[in-house]
Amino acid sequence: QSALTQPASVSGSPGQSITISCTGTSSDVGSYNLVSWYQHHPGKAPKLMIYEGSKRPSGVSNRFSGSKSGNTASLTISGLQAEDEADYYCCSYAAGSSLVFGGGTKLTVL
Amino acid sequence: QVQLQESGPGLVKPSETLSLTCAVSGYSISSGYYWGWIRQPPGKGLEWIGSIYHSGRTYYNPSLKSRVTISVDTSKNLFSLKLSSVTAADTAVYYCARIGGGAGGGNWFDPWGQGTLVTVSS
Known about the structure:
The complex is a heterodimer. Chain A is built from no helices and nine strands. Chains A and B meet through strand 3, strand 7 and strand 8 of A and strand 5 and strand 10 of B.
């Protein structure tokens, strides 16, 4: 299984919206609506932000939303805030009961 | 509040076996969910290693399957990772996590432990 493809970096100004893409194949993202997204501040434990494509865990801001089209899942963050600056990873359930992560995207809030 | 804490040697010699334990508090492993291991090599992304249910049912990353063993001890409320024949490429921060979701083996990780750095070097 190959890692899902994410852009290495994205940036935006406070208050703006950004979208991070996560491209897989018909064996993972395309076949299952089981993509999750994680926020990772270096040195800390990763935090679940979106699960099963578009569901938000309790306590996660509604500024975070998830979607999917074909083999590509997306994470959108609206109303960017300084504390959103972090690394973001997608993860998809895959054929054979595997789990595969994306390479990660560094979000910079300008 | 569920908490997970990894423990184990921070330095392992090449060709030896890496052994880590994840102690779970605030939730009984026997109550459900899958439990798993994820790693992050320095400067790289996350990689799923494998998952286990309290019954002992396991799922492993195909690329690591030949070297990985994950086990569970419900009496101590912990699960463990063994990775054999390690090389420098296995140097990473190793995280444990609870895995939720209805798919076989689960599909989302929450919460995570703080992680522990394991360096493979002679």
